[in-house]
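Board work, copied verbatim: GrpB family protein
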Amino acid sequence: MKINIETYNKEWTGQFEKIKTDLCSILVKLNPKIEHIGSTSVPNLAAKPIIDIQVGIENSYDLDKTIKPMINNHYIYYEIYNSVMPNRRLFVGLKDKKYIRNFQNIYSKGDLIPHEKINQLRLTHIHIWEHGTDDWNRHIAFRDYLREHPEIASQYESLKKQLSLKDWKDGNEYNDAKDSFIKTEEAKAILWFGKNNQPLFP
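↓ predict structure ↓
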């Protein structure tokens, strides 16, 4: 499969705000903190047109309380990835919720995810964690680091464009190819965050 990298689009911010409103309503009982992360959250950075969002809840014991309301509101739950990241719940939102009828509500271990079909219709990835954890913090740090260091963002963009020319088995293989760069810069981002006394929460 090919990875579609698009020039930065200001509409991505508006899409995030619309999804955030939806999530605030769905998860209101859990008092969620919601942040736009990933490449679409960094101005002028080319990206896959997928809105990455992280949702922070107060206690990891409540993670499974997010599943039913998210599924009931037409988000696809990727339970299959819980074994890799047990402290996260991952959901996919489609461009139009009516498309959900073409897919399972939950993809568990042993299920075959129809990646190509879902990739054509997906709008957003929702990552739900306990807020304030290392996983939550590193995404905030990396986002803000790229926003404040355009030369690093440019290097990241060049890497993504180069990788987009290749054929990949799936998106996970593409992500693995970016992993070394991300881990290196993410470590710098976390140090930068600490040195600059950046608040992780408003």
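The beta strands are 33-37, 51-57, 76-77, 89-94, 122-130.
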